[in-house]
Specification:
about 425 residues, alpha/beta, Rossmann fold, 2 domains, 18 helices, about 15% strand, binds uridine-5'-diphosphate-xylopyranose
């Protein structure tokens, strides 16, 4: 008999995991407390934008294998339960808010059948899995707990779930590992490396990976600052060091830094947890990683002020890009929107364009102006800030845009536009970390 699965929390991670597990042939029930989200998912409609997931979800719902509900008792039938709820930064500090993780485990506990395996996928502070293990031992001793961190990137969610570069499982016994091997059998068959760890190591793998990625980005942004001061070019520097396979050329794209629902909050939660554990010195460097990251946003504002004026009240600024990265409609901790909001707070008239993120951005920053089309955003602008590297921005014709603006000043916050093309069309161009 094929295992039955449940997925608790149907946001980015959960909706992707549910649809992908269904595509592997499992019967999957997705549970979420938000009735609106569940209603959409039940119809096979995705509540957010993720390339490829919309069609996969629709196809899987149609098979009848994949269902969604708000009713937690629906887990009673399932053998394996994936916890995919959010762990946002808490309102009053750096630590992760574990409310949803705890409440979801408490909600399923009374319904778990004999031998059920609860599998955490959410990113949590180390020690959480053991605490949940102890909770189940008391409230649902018939069930076991494992941790199986998720490394999916937005924009590549389906690919990263079905063909991940590794599978990591934190387990307390062989049986839990065997169950997870049964779930991931088709993925393992592709040759995916399988790493068995204990519970704390599995939790740490995730935050260590994200800390390393954040460090790489802040490293290159620190080099960008030095390049600007010394008259160098960070893009050439990145290319040159990236040829060393020990360094590698990925995640060395200098610009306005990292944002999103994971990297910023994960490094902060990691620092907070290390402090609780008395290991705060070990992660002191992450504070600097965070500082460098936030400074990259400030540098854009400084360049705008230096070029236009200290007093921005008479200026109109067009911001291209609102999402934290392209191919996503996610604006959580978006560096682009942060810059837009800060310029607006400084008195500038800011008009934001984004191919997918305008509605979520409007919800977060209702006071900014938004334009559906680039041509409307740039009309009469004194400066254009390219802050999220959507492909369509690379296809803009600087001569056409030049006829619409008031001042031909471009800041490339992602080092992705063809500077010479823009300069040849009469634009002043400032690219972060490049001086020529
Ligand atoms: C990240 C991790 O990559 C993923 O493994 C984890 O599961 C969740 O967090 P994601 O948040 O989707 O994924 O975004 P990612 O592609 O990592 O980009 C994060 C941020 O870093 C974006 O704002 C991006 O613009 C920025 N970035 C990335 C850079 O500024 N430079 C780079 O070279 C790479």
């Amino acid at each position: 008999m094929k295992l039955k699965l449940s997925v608790i929390g149907c946001g980015y991670l959960g909706a992707t995991h549910a649809a992908c597990m269904s595509s592997l042939g499992f019967e999957v029930v997705g549970i979420d407390t938000d009735p609106h989200k569940v209603e959409l998912l039940q119809k096979g409609e995705l509540p957010f934008y993720e390339p490829g997931l919309d069609t996969l979800l629709a196809a899987e719902v149609k098979t009848g294998r994949l269902t969604f509900t708000t009713d937690f008792s629906a887990v009673a039938d399932a053998d394996v339960h994936f916890i995919c709820v959010g762990t946002p930064q808490s309102k009053d500090g750096l630590a992760a808010d574990l409310t949803y993780v705890k409440s979801s485990v408490a909600a399923i506990a009374p319904h778990l059948k004999d031998g059920a395996l609860v599998v955490g996928k959410s990113t949590v502070p180390v020690g959480t899995a053991q605490a949940l293990h102890d909770y189940l031992a008391e409230h649902a001793p018939q069930a076991d707990l494992a941790w199986n961190p998720e490394f999916l990137r937005e924009g590549f969610a389906v690919e990263d779930t079905l063909t991940p570069n590794r599978l990591v499982v934190g387990v307390a016994n062989d049986r839990a590992e065997e169950i997870l091997k049964e779930v991931y059998e088709p993925v393992i068959a592709l040759g995916t490396p399988w790493i068995r760890a204990d519970l704390p190591t599995a939790e740490l793998v995730k935050v260590a990976a994200n800390s390393f990625l954040a460090t790489k980005i802040s490293f290159i942004n620190a080099m960008a600052e030095v390049c600007e001061a010394a008259g160098g070019d960070v893009t050439v520097l990145a290319k040159a060091i990236g040829y060393d396979p020990r360094i590698g050329n990925r995640f060395l794209q200098a610009g306005i830094g990292f944002g999103g629902g994971c990297l910023p909050k994960d490094i902060r939660a990691f620092m907070a947890r290390a402090q609780e554990l008395g290991a705060d010195q070990a992660l002191e460097f992450l504070r600097e990683i965070d500082n460098i990251n936030l400074r990259a946003r400030q540098r854009v504002i400084d360049v705008v002020r230096a070029d236009l004026s200290e007093d921005l009240t008479q200026y109109k600024i067009a911001v291209l890009g609102a999402t934290f990265k392209p191919d996503s409609d996610d604006v959580r901790d978006s560096p682009a929107l942060d810059i837009a909001a800060q310029l607006s707070a400084a008195g500038a008239q800011v008009v934001v364009h984004d191919p997918k993120g305008i509605e979520p951005a409007r919800k977060r920053f209702p006071n900014l102006d938004y334009a559906e089309k680039v041509v409307d955003a740039v009309k009469g602008a004194d400066a254009i800030l390219h802050l999220t590297e959507w492909k369509e921005y690379r296809e803009l014709d600087p001569s056409v845009i030049g006829q619409l603006v008031k001042g031909k000043f471009l800041i490339d916050g992602r080092n992705m536009l063809d500077r010479n093309l823009w300069r040849n069309a009469g634009w002043r161009v400032h690219a972060l970390g490049r001086t020529d």
